[in-house]
Design a protein that fits this description.
By secondary structure, the protein is an all-alpha fold. The protein folds into two domains: 21-207 and 265-501, Up-down Bundle (Growth Hormone, Chain: A), CATH 1.20.1250.20; 213-254. It contains 23 helices and no strands. The protein has helices at 21-55, 59-87, 89-109, 113-141, 147-151, 153-172, 177-186, 189-198, 206-211, 215-224, 229-242, 247-254, 267-273, 277-295, 298-312, 317-341, 347-375, 379-398, 400-411, 414-446, 448-469, 481-484, 493-501. Helix 1 (21-55) runs antiparallel to helix 8. The protein is globular and about 65 Å long. The model is unreliable at 1-15 and 489-502 (pLDDT under 50). GO terms for molecular function: carbohydrate:proton symporter activity. Keywords: Membrane, Sugar transport, Symport, Transmembrane, Transmembrane helix, Transport. InterPro entries: MFS_dom (IPR020846), MFS_sugar_transport-like (IPR005828), MFS_trans_sf (IPR036259), PLT1-6 (IPR044776), STP/PLT_plant (IPR045262), Sugar/inositol_transpt (IPR003663), Sugar_transporter_CS (IPR005829).
């Protein structure tokens, strides 16, 4: 049964360009899972300082503790795609929140390193589910005119979660050593439990329902998430066309019949073994943007900002945590700004501007940290390193951060979307784990400044990749994305990119 939440499906907003409030509520609730993930990421930035002291851990064990979450997120993301295709997007979000609940309880209990690691691994599986399902669900219920805004909400919620984690570090860090970090990690169990029940009041993705042959339910929900019945009819017809369901079958199904699901081809075969040329380009573009999101160093700044500021010359523990809160505030503010720009400026312009700014900020940070290492504490270098760190986070958050999830969740054909995004999340988590588990070791080998010079070089490569491979998707229906990459009408990526940008 569709939970309309009081929304009048027959008297929808007559303004077709106005954001549909019901679709917005659905995206917000689905994105709560991202707040929990963001909190878990942000809180570990400060909690590791107290865990190291309490459990007497060295750098290697801390790196493994921080990074292991991403390796298990890889398992979660690869499982989540198939799971969401089988049980639906809504139940997958509920499952993800329950996994987070178990992981948070184990970490909050954490009597020793082994139990803490088990909790971190369980939470990692939940992260994999959350990263895949929240943007996919949001994209599938959103109209094209506001898809950038609604699909970027999960990334915004990750940033808010990270900020909450930093704030939690600052205040709970004042408690006793044994209690403080355990509360930091365990408190995430509360919103996990709330979400597990709250998501069940939201409707299922209409595109998933069509994929299951449940057309009558899909059409009812499409009316709820559209501003007019005409818009709902057009969106529903586009989905049927993409699903290769003919009009007679659709009329029969909406009238109470059913439609057979198209299971003639394996999704994995269509994605990886024998993809169509357009699907191959889509996969390269989606995997590439996820690779560069973390290859350019954001995880190093989010997780190890206290260590970076300490290298720059900040020594007080309170000041280190307070400076880290500034990173969280910057990230949240600029993600909020990005959500309002995505559907106005477009993905491509924001992405190229963001990556160019990241290169400049990384270079500036690398120079300042190198000067501190070579000549000792310098007031100007300390100030420049803090400003550069905030600038890097700001440029990342206004472009590459949210666009990675918006872009990859909207360009796959809908039959391939869940498992296509799961591949992207797997690559995302591999790169996240690579950076988070190797950052301290690399800084020991080539210095902290040298490490950020490396990230700056990768930002240049990322900018070139985005410029060549990623066309503009602003305002296009999800069902038209394959044509943008040369599918259907035989037009190539270059031609389509020029057409959209003109």
């Amino acid at each position: 049964m569709v939970q309309a939440g009081g929304h009048n499906s027959l008297g929808s907003d007559p303004n077709p360009t106005h954001m549909n409030k019901f679709a917005c509520r659905c995206a917000i609730v689905a994105s709560i899972i991202s707040i929990i993930f963001g909190y878990d990421t942000g809180v570990m930035s400060g909690a590791q300082i107290f865990i190291r002291e309490d459990l007497k851990l060295n750098d290697t064990r801390i790196e493994v503790l921080v990074g292991i979450l991403n390796l298990f997120a890889l398992v979660g993301s690869l499982t989540a795609g198939k799971t969401s295709d089988v049980i639906g997007r809504r139940y997958t979000i509920a499952l993800s929140s329950l996994i987070f609940l178990v992981g948070s309880v184990l970490m909050g209990y954490g009597p020793n390193y082994a139990v803490l690691m088990v909790g971190r691994c369980v939470a990692g599986v939940g992260v994999g589910f959350a990263l895949m399902i929240a943007p996919v669900y949001s994209a599938e219920i959103s109209p094209a005119s506001h898809r950038g805004f609604l699909t970027s909400l999960p990334e915004l919620c990750i940033s808010l979660g990270i900020l909450l984690g930093y704030v939690s570090n600052y205040f709970l860090g004042k408690l006793t050593l044994k209690l403080g970090w355990r509360l930091m990690l365990g408190i995430a169990a509360i919103p996990s439990l709330v979400l597990a029940f709250g998501i069940m009041k939201m409707p299922e993705s209409p595109r998933w329902l069509v994929m299951q042959g449940r057309l009558e339910e899909a059409k009812k929900i499409m009316v709820l998430v559209s501003n007019t019945e005409q818009e709902a009819e057009e969106r529903f017809r586009d989905i049927l066309t993409a699903a290769e369901i003919d009009g007679d079958s659709a009329v029969k199904a909406v009238g109470g019949g059913s439609v057979k699901k198209n299971q003639s081809k394996s999704v994995w075969r269509e994605l990886l073994i024998k993809p169509r040329p357009a699907v191959r380009l889509i996969l390269i573009a989606a995997v590439g943007i996820h690779f560069f999101e973390h290859a350019t160093g954001i995880e190093a700044v989010v997780l190890y900002s206290p260590k970076i500021f300490k290298k720059a010359g900040v020594v007080s523990k309170d000041k280190l945590l307070l400076a880290t809160v500034g990173v969280g505030v910057t990230k949240a503010v600029f993600i909020i700004l990005a959500t309002f720009l995505l559907d106005k400026v477009g993905r491509r312009k924001l992405l190229l501007t963001s990556t160019g700014g990241m290169f400049l900020a990384l270079t500036s940070l690398a120079v300042s940290l190198t000067m501190v290492q070579r000549y000792g504490r310098l007031a100007w270098a300390l100030s420049l390193s803090i400003v550069s760190t905030y600038a890097f986070v700001a440029f990342f958050s206004i472009g590459l951060g949210p666009i990675t999830w918006v872009y990859s969740s909207e360009i796959f054909p809908f039959r391939l979307r869940a498992q296509g995004v799961s591949i992207c999340v797997a690559v995302n988590r591999i790169m996240n784990a690579t950076v988070s588990m190797s950052f301290l070791s690399i800084t020991e080998a080539i210095s902290t400044g040298g490490t950020f010079f490396l990230f700056a070089g990768l930002a240049v490569v990322a900018w070139w990749f985005f410029f060549v491979m990623l066309p503009e998707t602003k305002g296009l229906p999800l069902e038209d994305m394959e044509k943008l990459f040369g599918g259907g009408d035989g037009e190539g990526l270059e031609i389509q990119t020029k057409r959209v940008n003109s």
